[in-house]
Structure formats: C-alpha cells, structure tokens
TrEMBL record, chain A:
Residues 16-97 form the STAS domain. InterPro entries: STAS_dom, STAS_dom_sf. One of its GO terms (molecular function) is anti-sigma factor antagonist activity. Pfam families: STAS. This is Anti-anti-sigma factor. It comes from the Bacteria.
From TrEMBL, chain B:
It comes from Blastococcus haudaquaticus. It comes from the Bacteria. The keyword Hydrolase applies. GO terms for biological process: detection of visible light; regulation of DNA-templated transcription. The keyword Hydrolase applies. GO terms for molecular function: phosphatase activity; photoreceptor activity. Residues 143-302 form the Phytochrome chromophore attachment site domain. Keywords: Chromophore, Hydrolase, Photoreceptor protein, Receptor, Sensory transduction. This is PAS fold-containing protein. PROSITE patterns: PHYTOCHROME_2.
Length: 118, 734
C-alpha cells in the first residue's frame, strides 16, 4: 500500500489520516504534514492511524515528537490507534508510547464540542 | 600378466586372478572351423601350422606354393605389398572347394587363416545392396535408443543370429542390454545387466583393440598349433589378431551355462575406449556367418562407434544448454546485487534451485542459511555438508555411503552437490532417493568359484534367470556440466563477496565495529551466541548488543535498538552503549541502570528514542534479573513451553524524563534458553508483529538448544527481510 496522508475532519477537529507504512522513510512525510497543520497552531488535531499498515520505531519516534510539539503549542492532540490494528497498536503498547502520546482507541473516546475545520 | 604379484588373498580372489591371468591372447590353439598357417615372407614357408591342416589339404604343408595355384599365389604376393585389409578375404580353391584366406602379421610371421566358404551362412547380395540404407538409418538416429536399435536389428538381419544385443558398460564395467533384436520365441534380455566379472578386464583390453570375435560352435574341440612355440620368439604365437583364436574354456563354460551354442561379438569403441559390445547369440545350433557378412557387421559396429559420441552428446546437450542459461542468469543476478547475495539467490525470479535439476538447495552466505525446495531439516544441513566435505565427497549420488549417519535423510538427500563459497559459506543441492530396480542376468553376488581337487576354480554363473535388486539411498547422478555450473556460481559469489567486503570497508566505520563484539566474553557454565545482520540499505543500523561482566561474577547481556538508521543512529547507539555499560557497572540492577540511561537521553539526546533489554545473569545459580525499556519481549524456552517474558517492562528510552523501570526474575534451569532479538527479526513479517512473534515461538520450540545452532535455525526459518538490521542473542547452559 502506498503511503498517503489525507486531510479531513474527525470528531469536529481537523485531522490527518495516515495510510500505508509509517517507517524510517515515511516518517519525514508525516512530520512535514503535521508541521503544516500546526502552523499556525489550531486548537486541536486528530491523527488517525486506523488505516496505517505498519509502524516501526522511527514512526513511533515521530509520534513522540509530534506529541511534544503539540503540547508545547497548546494543541489538543488525539492519536487514534484501534486495538484491531495490531500492527500499529502492538508497537505503541510495547514502547509504552501512551506515556507521552495521547492515544485513543476510537473516535468515540474523543470528547465532543469542537468546531469543524473552517 | 603372469609375473604380476599375486596378493595373499582368499582362495576366491586367487581363482579370479587366475582367470584374469589366463593367456587369452596366446592360447596356443585355434577353433576347428578353419586352418592356420604361419609362414615366412617372402618365401611363404610354413613355420607353424594348426593340427587340422592335413585334414584340409590332405597332407602336411611346408610352403604355400604347395597348396595354391599360380594365379592365387600371384594375387597373394601382390596383396602382401599393400594393405592386407584390402586383400581379405582372398577367395582361393583348395581341393576343389572354395576357401577364404584371411591374412595378418604377428610375431614376425604372416598368419594365414583358411576358412571354407561352404557351411557359412550368407546374407546374400540383396543385403549388401541395402548397406547404404542401413548406414543412412544409423546416421539419422538422433537418440542412443534409436541408434542402438537400428544396430541390433540390422546386425541380426545381416548375420542371422537368434539374438543380437547392444550392451553398454557402466563406470564399473557392468554391462546393460540397451537394445535387442531376437527370435520371437526367445525370452527378452532387454534391460538386463551383466556383472563386470562376466567379461574380465583382460578380455576387455583385448576387445578395445580387436573389433570382432566369433565362436561358431561353443562345443568345439580346440586345435593345437604345431610347434607350440614360435621358433622366432621362443614363445607361443600371438593370436590376438587371429579370427580363429581359441577362447578361454571359462568363457565356453559361461556360454554353455547360458545355452548359447554360437556367439559373436563386435566392439563398440568410443574415442579409443571400449564403450560396449554388439553381442550375438545363437541357440539352435552352430552358426557361422560368412567372412563377408562378418566384415559388414563389423563395419556397422565401427560406424556406430563413430556416431556414439555425437549421439550421446546430443541427448545431453539440451540439459547442458538449459543449465548454462540458468548459470548466466544467476551470474547476472549476483553481479547486480553484490550486497544481498543470499536474498538474490533465494528470492529472485531465478533461484539457486533453478540452476540444475535438484529437489532442494541450500544457500549459506554470511553465516545465514537459506533453504529452497525439499532439503534435510535446517539443523541437519550444515553438519551434513561439513561431513561430506570432510569425507572428500562433495559430489555424490550416494550420500549415505560417504556419511553413513545421513542415511535417514535419503528421501531428500540421497545425492548431494556441495561447493564451498569461502569461509564457512557454501552452496549445496540435494537430490532425493531414486529407487532403482536393477535387473541382473543372474545373481551377480553369488560365488563364482567351485571347489576342485586343485583348489578353488572360477566357475561361471550357472543361473542366468533374471534377478533384480533394488538400489537404495542413491540419487540420479550429477552430470559433469552440472558440477561445473555449480562451481562457477560459487566462484561468482566468492568474487562478489570480496567486492562487497572492500566496499564495506570503505563505508563502515570504526564506530560500527565498536557496537559489535568480535567474540563474546566467556561465561562459565553458559553458552552464548550473537548474530548481527546489517540491513541492505545501511551498513550501520541502530541495533547493538553487549555483554558486560559485573563485579561478583554476574554478567549483563544487553540488546538495544535506536530508532533510525545511518551514521547518526550509529553515533547515538555508540553513546547509549557506553552509557549503559557505565550504569550497569555502578547500578544495583538492570532496572536502575535503564533509569540512568533514560536520563542520559532526556538530558543529552532530546528527541531520540531507543529500546533496550537487559538480562543480568548469575552464572552460579542461573538466576536472571530482567528489565526492558520498550523492547520486544525476551523468549524464555523451558521444558513446559516457550514464554514471551512480558513482565519487567517500561516505556521506551527517551519518552519520559523519569521512567522507573521494573525488574522481573526467572531462573535458567536445565535446557532452558533465552533469546533476545531486535524488531528487524519479527516486525516486517507478512502478518505483522504479532504473527512474527508467534512464528518465532514455533521455530524456537523445535530448534536445537545450543545457542549457535539455535540462532542459525531461527534465521533460516524466519529469513527476515533485509530492510532493517537484525540482532539476535541466545543464552543457554553449556
């Protein structure tokens, strides 16, 4: 599957949906897309890894960077990684990324009440 | 031959030697269907005569001019000036009867052999007119089967024998009937084999120079030569070129045991070497084709002999071309991808297994074994290959003969072709067992000797009833061109590996070498093994392993992985490795040491992330304390099962400022093993990380306990992709 990032709206927040394999070669692509979204910083951002086929430690390191940057900018970040997506979720759990990255299992866990992308 | 030293052997062997020593070229006698006169030149005075000369000529003969008229005498004298083969046969009249005289020279004399025309079978003019057609048929044959079938049929048509067989010798001089034409009521001999002993070496030597032998009546009485010794030499006359030569009584007994009354054989000689025979048998009674017909039959044999080489080669040529094409393709593959030779040879469109016809292949490059097709189990392949090389049998179609301990592998490896590539690396091809039914003419293993008053004597086999045996644990033999192709591929690989090594020397840095231990320190009572496979994209990856001896005899075994690749990752890896060493030496346990390492990253390497697992082993007790920073679980194999150790875990290094790593404890008892590994081994599997871990558990459960063998078995079975570097460390009690 080709790596692709789609802009959209999830739970009333601007979102980026990541398809394909998030690894050493594609992590910089995600970095660029997220940095674009964060300039200027929106109130919130959703990163949807539901259709992500694979994530290695370089992808994980990028998630940590994004989480730290979002926190520094005051952006409410949600990263969706369903338990059904073992390829991504197992890596997240092994690394214990949840200690730094706000991980949710589904859209339902994201609180309501935000505006849609203008 | 008689002065050959006779080994102090058992009586049986002595009897066989006695037959081999029998002076078949100088029997001192001829067969009775003709007369032999050995004469001087140019006077044509008779020096030696066969005892039956008086019967043919009505009186003793002192010189040829007493028995030939002037015209015949002139023709003979004319012929002596030229090639004798052009004179033969000289048709003369003796006492009103037509006689064919055949001439050749031996021992300084002219040997004249006189054979009455009357009583000989005549194929007739019609057959000889067909000779061009027969020759065309021989030349048109494209396969050995065709060629030999034409030969058997036309030799029988020409000579009128009840049975004509074409007989081919194998490497051990056993003969096999590969074509046959026979009287319809006779039992077929096609496909039967005759053991090498049926035609002794000494007879084969004679057959390689003398094209034709004839015995018109195997029940004949031999006719002695008088005098017995050639006055010119003091030795019996050399009859090896005489058509009337009397044959060994052992051979006559052999023919009688087969029920053969008359016999003729024509040699098939391929480039100077006896290749086979055209063997003719007659059962109904005595049988003597005319000299002209015999000459024609010999001519067919000589013609076929010339065609043998090209016909056999044509049959093998298609295979040769195919193998050569594969070899060229693989050489191109090897040339294109010098870095990933093992993958290129096992994953590409054309694999090593395609090079030549085989059931399976093994490619061991850079200490990693990959298997293709049907091979022995991974853990048996290397020992088998080493044993074959040690036994000096790298190319064999009977593996169990060279390595008896491999007999149980016959279904995949009855045949093996091994070529070393350099270091401990090799290529190997395997062929399965081919059960071959070999039909012998009689039991070849029965004793050939009988006991007589004079001691044991060779007695030809009495039973020629077809007797079959099954040849087991052998494969289809390897052809010379296949061996050459395999060796060429190995040479290509060795050359590519050399060029890769020099490239690596340029690329890799002292840095990377500091990450990996050349030799693991010794741990008393325990065996350790480590493997590091670089990724294809980067010489330097983020993996490291370490073994740190601690005060008090304990050792810490470390496997870590820094996110990212390349020199930047390698530089971080080096820093982490050394920082962790320092913390391990100071800290009270692996958890505290990881805490210290995590602080190093937080303070000095912000934004970087790594995982690491530390196993602290007390060799005196087998006690293990384990802590993991986001690393893949360690595999613990015990008698009760294979466990992924999930306790003692904490977040990856670099996530939190202060992590507080927990520890867990296990004990290594008996055959317990620990396996530490990096994500490159499991995460890129087709079905993801979870499936990769499951597959690894399955492999480890069945793999050998010894760590080196364990790691080889794991790498062979998992065969991780080369997109990431892969590190493995195995620990077990020695």
């Amino acid at each position: 599957m080709l790596f692709a990032i789609e802009r959209g709206t999830v739970a009333g927040r601007p979102s980026l949906t990541v398809r394909g394999e998030l690894d050493l070669s594609t992590a910089p692509v995600l970095a660029k897309a997220v940095d674009g979204e964060l300039t200027p910083p929106p109130p919130a951002l959703v990163l949807d890894l539901t259709p992500t086929a694979f994530m290695d430690s370089s992808g994980a390191r990028e998630l940590v960077r994004i989480a730290r940057k979002a926190a520094a900018e005051g952006v409410e970040l949600h990263v969706i990684a369903p338990h059904t997506n073992g390829a991504v979720r197992l890596t997240i759990d092994l690394l214990d990324l949840g200690t730094v990255v706000p991980i949710v299992a589904s859209t339902a866990e994201i609180p309501a009440g935000r505006e849609a992308r203008p | 031959m008689s002065d050959r030293p006779v080994p102090d052997a058992a009586g049986v062997d002595e009897a066989l030697l006695r037959c081999a020593d029998e002076p078949i070229a100088v029997p001192g006698a001829i067969q009775p269907h003709g007369v032999l006169l050995a004469v001087t030149e140019p006077d044509l005075d008779v020096v030696i005569a066969s005892a039956n000369a008086t019967t043919m000529f009505g009186r003793p003969v002192d010189a040829l001019d007493e028995v030939l008229d002037d015209a015949d005498l002139d023709r003979l004298r004319d012929g002596l000036a030229g090639d004798l083969a052009e004179v033969n046969p000289l048709r003369v009249r003796v006492g009103g009867a037509e006689v064919d005289v055949v001439l050749h020279r031996a021992d300084g004399l002219l040997l004249t052999e006189w054979e009455p025309v009357s009583g000989a079978g005549q194929a007739g003019v019609a057959w000889h007119r067909r000779l061009p057609t027969v020759l065309q048929r021989l030349a048109a044959a494209t396969t050995l089967d065709d060629l030999t079938q034409v030969l058997a049929r036309d030799v029988r048509g020409l000579t009128g024998f009840d049975r004509v067989m074409v007989y081919r010798f194998d490497a051990e001089w056993n003969g096999e009937v590969i074509a046959e034409d026979r009287r319809e009521d006779l039992e077929p001999f096609f496909g039967l084999r005759y053991p090498a002993g049926d035609i002794p070496a000494q007879a084969r030597a004679l057959y390689a120079t003398n094209w034709m032998r004839l015995i018109p009546d195997a029940g004949y009485q031999r006719v002695p030569l008088e005098p017995a010794a050639n006055p010119l030499t003091g030795r019996p006359l050399d009859l090896s070129g005489a058509m009337l030569r009397s044959v060994s009584p052992v051979h006559l007994e052999y023919l009688a045991n087969m029920g053969v009354v008359a016999s003729m054989s024509i040699s098939l000689i391929d480039r100077g070497r006896l290749w086979g025979l055209i063997a003719c048998h007659h059962y109904a009674g005595a049988h003597r084709p005319s000299y002209a017909d015999r000459t024609a039959a010999e001519f067919l044999g000589r013609t076929a002999s010339l065609l043998l080489h090209t016909t056999v080669a044509a049959g093998e040529r298609s295979g040769v071309v195919e193998v050569a094409q594969r070899q060229a393709q693989l050489a191109a593959v090897v040339g294109r991808t010098p870095r990933e030779l093992a993958a290129a040879l096992t994953r590409g469109e054309v694999t090593a297994l395609d090079l030549l016809p085989a059931g399976g292949a093994a490619v061991r490059i850079n200490r990693q074994l990959r298997l293709l097709g049907a091979t022995p189990p991974a853990e048996r392949v290397e020992p088998l290959v080493r044993a074959l090389l040690a036994a000096g049998a790298p190319v064999t179609d009977a593996v169990s003969r060279a390595v008896p301990g491999a007999a149980d592998l016959a279904d995949t490896a009855s045949g093996a072709l091994v070529v070393p590539v350099g270091g401990d690396d090799f290529l190997a091809w395997f062929r399965p067992e081919t059960l071959r039914e070999v039909a012998w003419a009689g039991n070849p293993h029965l004793s050939k000797t009988t006991q007589t008053e004079d001691g044991p004597r060779l007695s030809p086999r009495r039973s020629f009833d077809a007797w079959s045996e099954t040849v087991r644990e052998t494969s289809v033999p390897w052809q010379a061109h296949e061996v050459v192709a395999a060796r060429t591929l190995a040479a290509d690989l060795a050359a590519a590996a050399l060029s890769r090594a020099s490239e690596d020397d340029r690329l890799s840095t002292a840095l990377q070498r500091t990450l990996l231990l050349e030799d693991l320190p010794k741990v008393p009572g325990f065996a350790l093994a480590a493997r590091y496979l670089p990724s294809s994209e980067d010489v330097v990856g983020g993996d490291w392993y370490d073994l740190v001896p601690l005060p008090g005899g304990r050792v810490s075994i470390v496997l870590g992985d820094v996110a990212g690749h390349g020199l930047a990752a390698a530089a971080i890896t080096a820093q982490l490795r050394h920082a962790l060493r320092a913390h391990l030496l100071r800290a009270s346990g692996p958890g505290v040491a990881l805490d210290g390492l995590n602080e190093v990253i937080a303070a000095l390497l912000p934004g970087e992330m790594a995982t690491a697992v530390v196993v602290e082993l007390d060799p005196s007790t087998g006690e293990v304390v384990l802590a993991s920073a986001g690393h893949l679980p360690v595999l613990h194999v015990t008698t009760t099962g294979t466990h992924l150790l999930a306790d003692g875990r904490g977040p990856a290094l670099g996530l939190l400022d202060s992590a507080g790593y927990r520890e867990t404890r296990v004990r290594l008892a008996g055959e317990d093993r620990l396996l530490l590994f990096s994500d490159g081994l499991v995460e890129r599997g087709r079905d993801g990380l979870a499936a990769g871990l499951e597959a690894l558990r399955d492999v480890v459960r069945l793999a050998p306990a010894e760590p080196q063998a364990l790691l080889d078995a794991v790498l062979t079975a998992i065969d991780p992709p080369d997109t990431d570097d892969v590190t493995l460390v195995g620990i077990a009690r020695a």
